[in-house]
Amino acid sequence: MKLLSGSPLVDRSQTISISSLDWTECLDKRPTDRTSDDLDIIFSRLKEVKAFEKFHPLLIQQLCYYSYFENLEKGVTLFRTGDLGANWFAILSGNVDVCVPSENGKGHTLICTLGAGAAFGESILYDTPRNATIITSSSVMLLRVEQKDFKILWERNKQYLHGVITSLSQLTSAIDPKRRESEFDPSLIPHVATSKLLKDDPTRNPALPIVPNTSVRIQHAAYVLRSCILGRAQQMIRDRKYHLKMHRSCLVGSEMVDWFIHQSPILHSRSQAVGMWQALLEEGAIAHVSQEHYFKDKYLFYRFSGDEEGPLIRPSDIELIECEEQLTDVILTLTQVGPDAMLRMILRKLPHERTIDDLEIIYDELLHVKALSHLSSLVKRELAGVLIFEAHPFKGEVLFTQGGESKSWYIILKGSVQCVVYGKGVVEIFHEGDDFGKLNLVNNSPRTTTIILNEDNTHFLRVDKDDFDRILRDVEANTIKVKEFGKDVLILDKVPINVKTIDGTYQVYYKYFVMSGTSEKMLEHFLETYICVTYEEGDTSLDDFLSTYVIFMPINQICARLLSIYKAKPQSRLGENIDLVLQQKVKVIRFILEWYDVSRETFFEDPKINVFLEDLHQLIRVDMKIFSQLKEEIKLIEAIIENDTEHKEIRKSKLPWKQRNSIDKPKMIRPSNDVIFKVYCADHTYTTMKMRIDTPASKIIKVAADKLGLRCDQPDDLKLCEVKST
Question: Which segments constitute the DEP domain (predicted)?
Answer without folding.
Answer: 231-306
